[in-house]
Amino acid sequence: MDKDDVPLLGKLKDKLVETKESWARSGRGLTGSHGQARLPPGQRQTVDWPVLDLGIQPNLSQTEWSLTVAGAVETPLRWSWDDFLAQPQTESVSDIHCVTTWSRYDNRWNGVSARHLLDVVKPRPSARFIMFRSFDGYSTNVPLDRFADDDVLLAHSWQGEKLSREHGGPVRVIIPKLYFWKSAKWLRAITFMDKDSPGYWELRGYHDEGDPWTEQRYS
Ligand SMILES: Nc1nc2c(c(=O)[nH]1)N[C@H]1C(S)=C(S)[C@@H](COP(=O)(O)O)O[C@H]1N2
Ligand SMILES: [Mo]
User: Fold this and answer.
1) Beta-ladder partners of 190
2) What beta strand segments (E) does the chain contain?
3) Fewer CB atoms inside 10 A, N or C side of the chain?
4) Which of 21-35, 84-98, 109-123, 156-170 has the lowest mean pLDDT?
């Protein structure tokens, strides 16, 4: 019997099973941290992209921008815009989860992967945390293993367009698996540290690590 001879009901049933399987994979309908839920607990989905900052949006041209990487690394560096663009470029699609409860799905980022940066600077074995510093005076800390995730990047583009000034252009950090306050905008410097040290919001009551799946919102 040829596969076209399968009764129609059987085909429809197969189709439904496939759909349900894909829902199960994406965690459709789940809101808890179990399974493969896409929306972390306490979050709601938005389609727009809110802007959050400290009231200052640095206005940096690409030539004014540079990134310094220092601290517990074998090879400290300073990348100009041209140096940054000369690195291998990567693309990554991920969801944003802000501690103020909005989540935005399917953001397509382009930039330089954290993995590549780590290959270049070579953290010393003692390095366990990193601090990001920004041109507006903001800072935020993350464990090194969170930065080393394969979906982390220093992004210069969003949805194929140059990252806007209000969202942190020329370059911002993207760490999809942590609340968005960990994703520093207007990135200026990265310091590798042996010991943990709190950043701007971490000093003001936000959680040290910021995992949305276990609702590490406030300390
Ligand atoms: N330099 C800098 N980075 C920052 C912030 C900031 O005020 N300054 N705010 C953080 C917070 S609390 C959030 S939720 C996101 C907001 O990014 P967006 O404005 O692109 O949505 O940036 C994070 N990175
Ligand atoms: Mo935030």
Assistant:
1) 69, 132
2) 44-45, 66-71, 77-80, 90-97, 102-113, 129-134, 139-143, 153-158, 161-162, 172-174, 187-193
3) N
4) 21-35
Q: Answer yes or no: is the C-beta of 54 below 6 A from any ligand 1 atom.
A: yes
**Candidate CATH numbers 3.40.710.10, 3.50.30.50, 3.90.420.10, 1.25.40.10; the one for domain 3-214:** 3.90.420.10
Q: Report residue 70: phi and psi, to 5°.
A: -150, -175
Answer yes or no: is the C-beta of 184 below 6 A from any ligand 1 atom. Answer: yes
- Over residues 94-120, the pLDDT tens digits come to 999 999 999 999 999 999 999 999 999
**Ligand 1 pocket check: which of 136, 154, 174, 185 to mutate, most ligand atoms within 8 Å of Cβ?**
185
What's the pTM value of the predicted model, to 2 decimals?
0.86
